[in-house]
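I had to read the description of the data format several times before I understood it. For illustration, here is how one protein appears when written out as sequence plus structure tokens:
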Amino acid sequence: MIIVNCSHQQFRTRTPGCYAIVVSTENITLNWYFGNNRSMLLSNCIFRMGGAAALLSNRRADTGRPKYRLLHTVRTHKGAADECYGCVYQHEDGTGRVGVSQTRELMAVARDVLKTNITTLGPLVLPLSEQLKFLRSLVLRRVLRSHSVRTYIPDLPTTRNSRLPSS
């Protein structure tokens, strides 16, 4: 995501007609754990080897060709919080074998990061009508302290036709 964001910034400041190739790989080879600690064995099951690549362009001639169009990039950094910083870390087990350990807080941290990203992206991609419905439910719940009103969850299928690019 950082590379995509850098490419996006470069496209804004550089002359038109530029290309960027973004390649993302996942390689667990250096962090493969051979011990018996369960919290360290979990990463062997979740992470494997794989990759993806994308060709980005800001050429006017390429305007009608892409399947997707990058409109917004959002990065969330939660490393300053202790529970976020320590939920995945590399260390040695009791026998001296190095592995990546994951704590129980990982799911809560992931939920918090996802919530922050969606909150940041919501105003960028949701149409005004959906934003107003959400704001109305928020005001009723928080200001009037009406617990009978449920928080409005935006209808994402209808937003596909609004401010998101077509595929």
